[in-house]
């Protein structure tokens, strides 16, 4: 009876929360278009990264080149990120998204054609990775900051929770599809499918309002001209924003690159095929999906910065344990836990900046977030070098362990970033 009352109370709480915070924004037709476009974008991005890594490993039988491929994809982030905010302010979020999505579609079709003609080489995939990486560096912050225009400033936190949930759902489907389609239909049809879904995303984005034209004013134009030195001054004086950037740099240098070793672990350590790769990626993505809801529930009791650093540490620790596993079932369980940590990290990273940053600085701060994410290619180069020396298992375990230690140190040193349980209790 008590169990039934508990379940009933929980259902009522969820229903009330949905009605109060989410029901109105999900009825917004432009928000619906944005959600569908972002889900398709997330689906094709994560699935194509997995399939590309698998194709490179089949072509070269080299774990180092699998890592190098993802290095090329993110190599431009540290530089492009500095100017991404100003470019978005000048051109507009919708235009940036539309152009980028079109380029993704063309790239997918080109790779499919090269595969069909049996002339695909590593340098083709490396070139495609650089092109899509340049687009992503500007496209990603544009997709984040457009939320304030679509749902309004007062709903931006709730809107982001819904948007990130849908994107994670796209990642879950993409991870599953990457293994299944590649196994059943082959690599060519995988890329054809990515191109089709990417084209559907173009249609969704084209139906959005051009918020650049709607909100254009002299004041907006003046605010768009924010020098880099002013952005750095703004960031360095705010412990919350600075903490998010430091944690992001640590995770992207030491933790995120390890995902590029999934094809290597699936093939050489677990002795599996493309389906094994799908299992690993799917468990990680499903964990991320659950992590979103756990983080939202946690916001009732703890500050977002607490949950952000907690999720980052959990993800790093799980990767360290994953490196020790030689069993598929155990690996899937550990990656599910890593995914939960990534859900905390991913959703709260942008949620903190969206709610904490002043509106006129938002695009610029998100540009700096791209710079922080831009440490990822350097992390991939480092991981590549370590992998070539000690092997994939020791390389992944070592970098994940270093990440744990650095994240704990960051949490202890940035007192203002971590001071929240006491604050939350006293409210």
What is the strand tally? 0
Output the radius of gyration: 21 Å
Instruction: Give the proportion of residues in helices.
Output: over 70%
Weakly predicted, low-confidence segments? 1-5, 217-223, 420-427
How can the largest sheet be summarized?
Answer: none
Mean pLDDT across residues: 82
Note down, in words, how this protein is organized.
The chain is an all-alpha fold. Helix content is 84%, strand content 0%. Helix 13 runs parallel beside helix 19 and helix 16 packs antiparallel against helix 17 (328-356). The radius of gyration is 21 Å and the shape is globular. The protein starts with a helix and ends with a helix. 55% of the residues are buried.
Write the layout of secondary structure elements.
Layout: H1 2-22, H2 29-60, H3 63-74, H4 77-91, H5 93-116, H6 122-145, H7 147-151, H8 156-184, H9 187-206, H10 211-214, H11 218-224, H12 228-236, H13 239-254, H14 262-269, H15 274-298, H16 304-322, H17 328-356, H18 362-373, H19 375-390, H20 392-413, H21 415-418, H22 421-426
